[in-house]
User: Which sequence fits this backbone?
């Protein structure tokens, strides 16, 4: 084999590897984000149902107190 042929084959294997792992990583990230969102919504629903007074998530802009 010539150096050009070997180099081209190595490049194709890198492209094939990235073509497999990049979409797989994106899919895993989407699933993790969906699970986190679902758990937050479920916790919020549970808090509303139980009459909980604790806030879930970050406070609204008007509720922030100045430091000091």
Assistant:
């Amino acid at each position: 084999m010539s150096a050009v042929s070997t180099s081209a084959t190595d490049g194709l294997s890198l492209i094939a590897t990235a073509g497999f792992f990049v979409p797989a990583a994106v899919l895993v990230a989407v699933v993790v984000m969906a699970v986190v969102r679902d758990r937050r919504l479920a916790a919020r629903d549970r808090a509303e149902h139980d009459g909980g007074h604790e806030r879930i998530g970050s406070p609204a802009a008007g509720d922030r107190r100045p430091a000091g």
The two ends are 72 Å apart (CA to CA).
